[in-house]
Amino acid sequence: xxxxxxxxxxxxxxxxxxxxxxxxxxxxxxxxxxxxxxxxxxxxxxxxxxxxxxxxxxxxxxxxxxxxxxxxxxxxxxxxxxxxxxxxxxxxx
Length: 93
Known about the structure:
Distance between the termini: 36 Å
Mean pLDDT: 85
């Protein structure tokens, strides 16, 4: 059983130009690259918090628990198009 505290570090793959920017910024700020990246990600997400929230709300609206919503999410078809094609067979709860 894995606990939250026992998570392993995951490698982060970035292009060479981005890695150079990270290396230089971390060096001039006097911090390890991993700390710089962690702080940068937190700052970026804080700056775009409302966009992330809107995306989460939109995702939750798509997946309302119905079979139609699941079919729409999996196929990319609108609910209207699914109905035109014969619906989900009345299996929605």
